[in-house]
Each structure stands twice: as C-alpha cells, then as structure tokens.
Amino acid sequence: MTTKKGILVSPNLSLVAEDALVVAGENVDVDVHCIRLPVDPEARLAAEDVEKIDLAFFSQDIPRGYGRSFFSAVRRAPNIRWMHAFNAGTDHPLFAELLAKGIRISISTGLTAVPIAQTAITGLLMFARGFPHFLDAQRRHSWEPQIGARQPQDLEHQTLCIVGLGGIGSELARLALGLGMNVIGIRRSPQRGEDPVDEMYPPHALAEVLPRCQWLALTCPLTEETRGLIDRDKLYSLPRGAHVINVARGEIVDEAALIEALNSGHLAGAYLDVFEKEPLPEASPLWDMPNVILSPHNSAASSANERHMFGLFLDNFEKWLADEPIRNEIKPAS
Q1: Which residues of 111-131 are buried (b: 16+ CB within 10 A; e: fewer)?
Q2: Model confidence, pTM
C-alpha cells in the first residue's frame, strides 16, 4: 500500500530536486509531496498543510527573512519526525528544542570544509604577504613597495595552531603544510596517522602551546567548553606580532580583549568571519581597524554548496525511507 510523506521545503527548491525526491519515494511505494513555504516571508502555512509535514529540509536557498516562517511551520507540525539542515554547527537553541520533542535532526557537517578552509588560508596569506598595506596604498594612489625591514617574513617554518581538527581544520592544516608551515592541532582525540599536522595536543594544553605560534586559527564548534575559550590571557600568550583567524563562532573569542590586543599592537592582525553579535553592529570598531579583515559570516560561500547539500539530503532521505541510519545525525545532550 502506498504511503504519503510531506516534505517542508524552500519556495526556491528546483523542480529537478523535487522530481528527485518524488522518484526516491516512488522506488519504495511512497507518495512524496513537497510543501513549499509561502512566497511572502511574513505569511504562514495553512493548518492543513502543516499537518501534512513529515520531514523538513532547511536548505541554504531559503531566502534571508524566511527563517521565522520555516521554523514556525516546523514547530506547529504535529507529525514531523525529522529535519535536515544546511548548518554545520549545532549551537542554535532551536535544535535542542526540536530534539527534546523527539524530532530527529541531521546537519551538513563537512560539506563546506573546503571553501571555509580556502577562505581562512586566503586571510592568512593576505596578512603574510602584506596585502592590507597594498590595498591601503592603492586607495591613496600611492606607490609603496615593501622593502628593507618592511618586507614580509617567510611563512616557511612559521607555526600555525588550529583549534578544532574536524573537516575544516584538517583541510586548513593540509593547505598550511603545503606552504611549509609547522602545524599544531588542538583536539580532544589523539593524533591519527592520517592527520595533516606536525603535532597534536588536547585542549588543556592550548595555553602552553600558544607562546610559540605566530598564527592561531579557530575552526572548532561552539560548545560550553569552547565558549569564551580564547580569553585575554590566551591572546596575550601569543607572541607579539601574531595573527588570529576565526571561521568558527564569534562567541569563542573575547571580542573586547581581541580589539584591545589589536589596538595595542600585541596582535598584528586578525581575519574574522564570525562575531559575538551578528550582523556586526555598525558601531563596532572592528569595521575601521586597519589590521582587521572581516567578512559577513560568509566563508563557506561556494556555487557548489547547494548541489552538495541536496545530494546529502537526498541520500539521507532514501536511507530514512528505508529505516536505515542517516548521516550526520545529532543526538540530544546526555
């Protein structure tokens, strides 16, 4: 007997993607119906549509401003059993709320590791090769080559400490090794043979490692253990002239202490993709600091992301229909 499954999706889900979901259902005698969000972001799904939702796909193509509409439907859906999200992090409080209701959640961990790591290494190279100076000179129409004592230091043999050696951290480590850097990983689990690092230490050893690191990169998830991990003491444990790269979460770093260390000259620069408060307030001094490069929590941007994320969701959907384990499922905190 054919059963029915309703999937809450973006108003922008392509017809090709919808057809793929329908075919996946047909293969196991399931009638799949995609329930699209209303085009108006202020509108809400009708009650009869909400009752038909069995699962939800929170995709990256859901336009900004539609999140409330999407999660309103998820919260109201009495029959929902599973949600897949494009997020890699699990720190959003909504996740805990849904898990507490018995709703399964899977995420897209690892799919954006390559673009995020490439963005992080770009920030590192911009500082290492003096691009803030060049860009400032360009704006002033001034010909100012870096010569003599102002020449950049060779990256070879400089030390990069990466806090969090998951998919993003490992890819960043691989790129840094290719530049001849010495790479130190910080992770709870011990070093494995395939890890692209020279050294590996547990989190409690971070303070001991920092004094010999010219670069500190944060690629770890936001947890109770990592919230506020990089405080004033750790920032000033770095050698004078060090740089900080944060593509993790803003709350991992004491932002006020970071600004102080940058203003004082103890830190030479920082590339920041994430901040304690987002969007970054217009009054934040970070906008105008000459030794800061920032991006609007956009380090993962890539034209291939949507295709990769849908591929993961489709694979998980087929597994879910077959009552098989799904990939990247997160579990309630014990």
Answers
A1: bbbbbbbebbbbbbebbbebb
A2: 0.90
